[in-house]
Amino acid sequence: MISKIPPPQIRATTGLELAAGLFTKCADALASQLTISLTSGRKESAQTPLRIGINGDVYGGMRAPMEVGTRRVDIAYVNPSAIVTMAYRGKGYYKQKMALRVLGSFPSWDRIAIVVSRDLGVKSLHHIARRKIPLHVSTRFSGVDNATYYTISTILSFYGFSFEKIKRWGGQVQECPRPFTPERLRGIAKRSINAVFDEGVSTPNGWLDQALENGYEILSLEPEIVKKLEQMGYSKAVLPKSRFRQLREDTLTIDFSGWSLVTPPMAARPDGLCCRGNDRREKKDDSGGR
């Protein structure tokens, strides 16, 4: 019962729930980034504040590990979990190894899907590069180092082209804030776009299911390309025919799952606040989410 909670915690819980409610219902109108700061509130206190970055292009994107590593925030979500591996290894986007600790991971199932219209008659991204096809492609919003956009751009670079090259070839690039943006779904239904490069494929009857039902197909990534991505920190995966019944066989791609909750090593937080927060989260999980 909330009546058993001390008044300061009641006020804190109410404030956090209010912020969460506003963010959930009004994120598009207000902002896309949520930051929580815990401080003593006393001028004379020497306590180090604890800052948590929850969402947004910075706190949820490629810069999230750097925000933690430079102590701009103390805890942040990183999606996909492969980005944590990349930062820890100092590969790809990250120019040096980053000391990070994973407190936990919010599970999810996702994959990168490279989807094109069957009318194009291509079976590989190599064919698009060689023929310089002016695609009308829908992808994720580039934003501020968006992880999806970065990942797909990296894949294209291994095939020798980019979104900018597609534009130079006479194509168009539709950037969407989310996988299920209405403009994309209308484009799939009307066949006004002939390619979609994105993730967010787990939802039944989502954008990928609709595309496969409407004359599109998934291109497999070549094993040598996947190996390069694995060296960066990504993991090999498939889009399984058991889930997508339109497929003749499993399609090779990379995993895009997991929301890792990361923090600096505990030496950077001598007060142990991050560990205590994780203990509370684990107790909540053990109690069935109560």
Features:
single chain, 290 residues, D-Maltodextrin-Binding Protein, domain 2, 2 domains, 5-stranded mixed sheet, 12 strands, 37% helix, 19% strand
Strand order within the widest beta sheet? 1-2-3-12-4
Distance between the amino and carboxyl termini:
11 Å
Instruction: Tally the structural domains.
Output: 2
Low-confidence runs of at least 5 consecutive residues: 275-290
Mean pLDDT: 84
The helical percent reads 25-40%
CATH class of the largest domain: Alpha Beta
> From the alpha-carbon coordinates, what is the Rg to the nearest angstrom?
21 Å
**What is the fold-level CATH name, i.e. the topology of the largest domain?**
D-Maltodextrin-Binding Protein, domain 2
CATH architecture of the largest domain: 3-Layer(aba) Sandwich
Shape field: globular
What is the string of SSEs from the N terminus onward?
HEEHHEHEEHEHHEHEHEHEEEH
Q: Give the helix tally.
A: 11
Count the E strands: 12
CATH superfamily of the largest domain: Periplasmic binding protein-like II
The biggest sheet, with number of strands, parallel, antiparallel or mixed sense and barrel status, is: 5 strands, mixed
User: What structural class do the secondary elements suggest?
Assistant: alpha/beta
Strand residue content: 15-25%
